[in-house]
Amino acid sequence: MSFPPVERQLIVFDFDWSLADQDSDRWVFEVLAPKLRKKMKELKKEVQWTDLVAQSLKELHELGGTRQEIEDTLRIMPFHPAMVRGTSALKSRGKTTFFCLSNANIVFITTILKSKGLENLFDEIVTNPAEWDPSGLLKLRRRIDPSGPQHECKVGCSPNMCKGNALLCRLHAQEDEKLKPTTCR
Ligand SMILES: [Zn+2]
Q1: Would residue 123 show up in a list of annotated catalytic residues for this protein?
Q2: Residue 124's pLDDT is what?
Q3: Are strands 138-140 and 130-132 parallel, antiparallel or unpaired?
Q4: For residue 116, is pLDDT > 90?
Q5: Predicted confidence band at 131 (pLDDT cuts at 50, 70, 90)?
Q6: How many angstroms does the Cα of residue 137 sit away from the middle of ligand 1?
Q7: Which class is domain 9-143?
Q8: Is residue 15 pLDDT above 80, yes or no?
Q9: Which of 2, 58, 132, 158 registers the highest number of CB atoms within 10 A of its CB?
Q10: pTM confidence score
Q11: How far is the CA of 3 from the centre of ligand 1 (A)?
Q12: In this structure, what is the dihedral angle of CA atoms 82, 85, 87, 91, given to the nearest 10 degrees?
């Protein structure tokens, strides 16, 4: 594989339908609980997406869905082997910073990356926080807390995060004072 002669570069990835060949939020329910997936389609217009996934994860847990099942489902999600090869080869050259901006969540993303041997690919992942509680419930919440100040982006970002602002924060932290965003969260 040949690469252009660069000294340094930043590669910014979305996750669902870009690095990976599926949408992780939808995939989990399509595989494990088609009825919940159908309900999500119906509620999508009324409930903010991250809140809807969080609520659906609770319902899946109440129906007996386990952490193991969710993790196994994430590990078999479509992911092109050439993407693994390409990103790994580029990473190994040491000149590329990989940055992930995603509306999924940190547990889905890291579980999938680990299953592909890509757990060290990204220098930073900006997404919604999530954690397993001891009962096996995946507790997910918006990156931007709905009870606090909201982002002011007007280009159509979902309330849970502004990807443009997150990218500016990254660029600012990395190198360029001029790109200072208003707030970083
Ligand atoms: Zn935005």
Answers
A1: no
A2: 95
A3: antiparallel
A4: yes
A5: very high
A6: 30
A7: alpha beta
A8: yes
A9: 158
A10: 0.90
A11: 31
A12: -170
Tokens of 90: 């580029």
Task: Please say if 72 is a catalytic residue.
Answer: no
Q: How far is CA 173 from the centre of its chain?
A: 21
Q: Which two tokens stand for residue 147?
A: 């009870």
Token reading at 169: 């924060």
> For residue 40, which amino acid is it?
M
Could you list which residues have their CB under 5 Å from ion ligand 1?
153, 157, 162, 164
To the question of whether residue 133 is assigned a binding role by annotation, the answer is no
Q: How far is CA 105 from the centre of its chain?
A: 4
Cα torsion 136, 142, 146, 148 to 10°: value is 110
Say yes or no to pLDDT of 185 above 60: no
Tokens of 51: 């809140």
Copy the structure tokens of residue 85: 């090869």
Q: Which residue has the tokens 């999924």?
A: 104
Q: pLDDT (tens digit, 9 = 90+) per residue, 140-152?
A: 999 998 889 888 8
pLDDT for 153 = 83
